[in-house]
Amino acid sequence: xxxxxxxxxxxxxxxxxxxxxxxxxxxxxxxxxxxxxxxxxxxxxxxxxxxxxxxxxxxxxxxxxxxxxxxxxxxxxxxxxxxxxxxxxxxxxxxxxxxxxxxxxxxxxxxxxxxxxxxxxxxxxxxxxxxxxxxxxxxxxxxxxxxxxxxxxxxxxxxxxxxxxxxxxxxxxxxxxxxxxxxxxxxxxxxxxxxxxxxxxxxxxxxxxxxxxxxxxxxxxxxxxxxxxxxxxxxxxxxxxxxxxxxxxxxxxxxxxxxxxxxxxxxxxxxxxxxxxxxxxxxxxxxxxxxxxxxxxxxxxxxxxxxxxxxxxxxxxxxxxxxxxxxxxxxxxxxxxxxxxxxxxxxxxxxxxxxxxxxxxxxxxxxxxxxxxxxxxxxxxxxxxxxxxxxxxxxxxxxxxxxxxxxxxxxxxxxxxxxxxxxxxxxxxxxxxxxxxxxxxxxxxxxxxxxxxxxxxxxxxxxxxxxxxxxxxxxxxxxxxxxxxxxxxxxxxxxxxxxxxxxxxxxxxxxxxxxxxxxxxxxxxxxxxxxxxxxxxxxxxxxxxxxxxxxxxxxxxxxxxxxxxxxxxxxxxxxxxxxxxxxxxxxxxxxxxxxxxxxxxxxxxxxxxxxxxxxxxxxxxxxxxxxxxxxxxxxxxxxxxxxxxxxxxxxxxxxxxxxxxxxxxxxxxxxxxxxxxxxxxxxxxxxxxxxxxxxxxxxxxxxxxxxxxxxxxxxxxxxxxxxxxxxxxxxxxxxxxxxxxxxxxxxxxxxxxxxxxxxxxxxxxxxxxxxxxxxxxxxxxxxxxx
Amino acid sequence: xxxxxxxxxxxxxxxxxxxxxxxxxxxxxxxxxxxxxxxxxxxxxxxxxxxxxxxxxxxxxxxxxxxxxxxxxxxxxxxxxxxxxxxxxxxxxxxxxxxxxxxxxxxxxxxxxxxxxxxxxxxxxxxxxxxxxxxxxxxxxxxxxxxxxxxxxxxxxxxxxxxxxxxxxxxxxxxxxxxxxxxxxxxxxxxxxxxxxxxxxxxxxxxxxxxxxxxxxxxxxxxxxxxxxxxxxxxxxxxxxxxxxxxxxxxxxxxxxxxxxxxxxxxxxxxxxxxxxxxxxxxxxxxxxxxxxxxxxxxxxxxxxxxxxxxxxxxxxxxxxxxxxxxxxxxxxxxxxxxxxxxxxxxxxxxxxxxxxxxxxxxxxxxxxxxxxxxxxxxxxxxxxxxxxxxxxxxxxxxxxxxxxxxxxxxxxxxxxxxxxxxxxxxxxxxxxxxxxxxxxxxxxxxxxxxxxxxxxxxxxxxxxxxxxxxxxxxxxxxxxxxxxxxxxxxxxxxxxxxxxxxxxxxxxxxxxxxxxxxxxxxxxxxxxxxxxxxxxxxxxxxxxxxxxxxxxxxxxxxxxxxxxxxx
Lengths: 786, 568
Fold this sequence. Notes:
The complex is a heterodimer.
Chain A: E1 2-4, E2 31-32, E3 41-42, H1 100-107, H2 123-133, H3 141-148, H4 163-171, H5 174-179, H6 194-203, H7 205-228, E4 236-246, E5 252-262, H8 279-288, E6 290-300, H9 304-307, E7 317-324, H10 331-346, E8 358-359, E9 379-384, H11 391-399, H12 415-418, E10 423-434, E11 442-454, H13 456-459, E12 466-467, H14 468-472, E13 483-491, E14 502-505, E15 510-516, E16 519-527, H15 533-536, E17 543-546, E18 560-567, E19 573-582, E20 589-597, E21 601-612, E22 615-616, E23 621-625, E24 634-642, E25 646-656, E26 672-674, E27 678-684, H16 699-702, E28 711-717, E29 721-723, H17 732-756, H18 769-781
Parallel strand pairs in A: 4-13
Antiparallel strand pairs in A: 1-23, 2-3, 4-5, 5-11, 6-7, 6-10, 7-9, 8-9, 10-11, 12-17, 13-16, 14-17, 15-16, 18-19, 19-25, 20-24, 20-27, 21-22, 21-25, 23-24, 26-29, 27-28
Helix pairs in contact in A: 6-7
Chain B: H1 7-55, H2 64-72, E1 75-85, E2 100-109, E3 115-126, H3 129-135, H4 140-147, E4 158-163, E5 176-178, E6 183-187, H5 192-206, H6 210-216, E7 239-248, E8 254-257, H7 260-275, E9 280-289, E10 298-300, E11 305-308, H8 317-324, E12 334-340, E13 349-351, E14 363-366, E15 370-374, E16 389-392, H9 395-409, E17 421-423, H10 433-464, H11 472-494, H12 497-515, H13 528-567
Parallel strand pairs in B: 1-3, 1-4, 4-6, 5-17, 7-9, 7-12, 8-16, 11-13, 12-15
Antiparallel strand pairs in B: 2-3, 5-6, 10-11, 14-15
Helix pairs in contact in B: 1-13, 2-10, 6-10, 7-9, 10-11, 10-12, 11-12
């Protein structure tokens, strides 16, 4: 099933440890014996919440799907053009002689973990139960009404306790405290801790055990004083920031990031008192044993080719990937329950995640936070490309913010503006991180991000000037008092060596220079917490003006981008083509491609071809899991080396399956979505990057775990595909019934007649028609009849 | 016909042939009739059952009779009770010498169909030497503590110690003392009748009263007959989630800290440990910022404070509740306790009752939902004090109110206690043993009523909609629920409170599982017009010839019956 080949020298660079802190490097290099007996290749640690999209010249926006859902809210006016851009290259790819790895994989035995989950509980029962117990908000007002009656006679309603009787059990402070269990929730439970334990373990098992004991002692000692002054010290912090970046095409991307960090261990049942961290998510993490959760809801498509690398990427629709704790015994059940609960929290159709769209990637998604191991059986990944994102998803997302949308940067999140845009993506990332540099304890981080792209070129009469008010129809007036950092960054990096092209007002509090994704960037920073900012004016309305019209003829092309389309004609077979571009002038780098294809497109792995510069490109790692009808999708993961300045074309043929007639959606002619494929790569950087302190750097930068100065991590998503399946005539069953019944009735009728009718020979009395005619004529002639 | 034959012969031959043809024709017609009849028989005997069998929905048998019986089943609550006469307290008019047994029954009628009988099985006896010694102490508290090891500690049982009328154990003016556990000290009161009247009052306080049972069965009581308080108690459930929320609408001016963790461990946990027998509890807390009440308080010039009048309180909760967050991870009902620190522009804020007097605790509760307390922050001495103002919440004061509200929501109030009774405070546990019994009695009765309602409506639903598939596991859950509820009723009539409560809990679980089984929804939509549209193309062409030939046969037999009479 899994074939690992010897990496080419260029791929040795893949042995990175791309964690967001240098502490985790040791995880990366564990030798795995290759099935071919050659030198083993290590586990690839591909990090990244980073989602990226690739532009396609002809069809940019994924089509808005018409989903039968409860919402009556107005959907955003999305681009309705279909991404089906058949480029006429319907040349069937023949068998590839060298692709033995791919050919071998379907025949390989199916390992035990492919067993399908049995979904015991449907989401319907969830909602029914909840609805029954607490039907609506008005319930609270109703029971109050009877209570109002006896308010004066009955002291129970307006409560005044009989003080004398209450006092004893409430004021006896000392004794219950003395009897309080000595095991405080803050005392660390027996937890094998990340790399400390791991390092020791590598040296020797005996020493490892001792080290773990020492570590536990250390932990207890460290936690002791922490517990004493736990009440005073703030253990959670909120940092918020907004990044405004003008895109090469004249659009403006605004990225909000809200990071809630909590110095507490959200393990099962240990913590139940929440301050800044939202209770709903905290309980979810604790109850279901979630180690990491990444949920993104996206409307529109990020056009990487024209917009450059986004700070945060997500595929169109809903994407959810979760790492569970090793303590979770039934991962599939927890995954099902989790998607149902998240569906309720975010008002999204995540409850449609089931075994037919869930995959377990082996190499593409690695934990972003602290992790003891990367056993990918604890990972679940699902994409719902059909999901439509709208206000009903934004409102619960905003509710998770400590300040809501009442203060701080979140004031700008006005739904009617956010959905009047070319691209909208909101995400929630939960992960455990190191509490400090020594990393002896775990903190939990909740990162809420929202990216939106406004098109000002077309709506602003050809001018590319913008301001906060133009974008959001609001300005910033005050800060969230709970935020420990609140900043607005404006990307004013000079393009094409021309400086002073643009002008921002009011003057920024400072200017920050950083290297983000291999590019040197300059940011104008507005620190909302600095008292200077609101002194001069009551509100902050950041404005950007171009000094002279910018010629947009030369747009920088990103180093890595991709596009995907369906080729072929007819309704029987087709071909999925993926083009991956490496525009780096002299460096080659490998990329991991993850394809998830629904079962009703039957992939033929023997038709898989990978061609670069006219030559066969042999993937050094292939993991293929064939689909099972109505149970499991296809999963194809490959590690492909991209030579410098090249286009790699990956094609695979498929056959369209016939569905049962009840399996078609209400609009079957719309087509069926195939989720975006995922490209993960370490892209070599043109500019050298320096190692920076993750905690201090801006949030959008700290999300990218850069391994060293020479490369940066990129995760790209291609376009989702829309494939037409042969659609039957849906009145057919009734027609068939009618036709069959008619045939049966005719047969039966003649048979019945044969059996029940009496037949007897009848004398020919008057002869045939000719004779009768002749007789009539003879009568006229006066001749006797025949 | 044949040429050359004589005409008479030809005629004869013709007649013979006609007769033969007639006979053959008749035989043929008879065969046709038999064929038609056998078609009809096959269609009726084979076709119809086959069609019926292949299209029917699977419906496992349910105990409909037992479910019907649940509604009418009389519930008898039996309280085993020991009446122990201390030295010098035996009334003169005892009917028999001690020890003896007696039974008192009381009927609590809820509505026309349901009635609950309570039955006190009293064992009268005199004290043992140990009990004598225990009663010889100075105060009632000490006596209670000393008597505890000597009592029957089964749930639901009571022990009454009768002390002489002149005993100094009880303070002046107090006739009964209810201890922390399951015992009480009662003054003799002269005659047996007076003593029994007093005993009845004490037992009602300690076990259940007509009103507490009626409150438990509030679903069945007709509207208007029930006091508003009866709807205050939480519905019985297998678990509850308690959420403490601190609402800080003005984080710019106030930084509010509360040591909720310590307070929960110190005040709430002991109570919940005791209540863990009744249900599972989970406690959590959160702080919500910018969460405002839905009502703008009125400014009162006299006291220079803001007032929230009683009639506006119902509008307070809804806007707040939108922020509270759902309990997505469990299905248990949530009890919300909100501590509201009013914004600086609205403080101090006081709640007024109906008469306009400020409520001393500045708190109110909403039935079956939770409670809200307004916590005013003292204005700083100097107006120039730097904002935000740091506030440390006095958790003892807050928890005192919240715990009292918690007791109220569980239906444990001391309001029905007559004034000459003295109740011992339950101490750190927050709950006396007999209060736990009180809760168990009410919850058991309520569970039984809930199960019978659930099962009855399930049976009615399944009866009404014939398309619903009843799977075997649903049926087995229904059977289990019926069996459990019957055993609960039996255990109640035997006086085993704990066993009855456990059985009633199982019954609730099973009945809910059966009622909400997703398989019940599968064939719900299968309308008749579609059925006809599918069946008619087949059935009509098949049925018409059969019916027509049957009609023809009937007509012919009728004719043949008439013909012989005509011939004669």
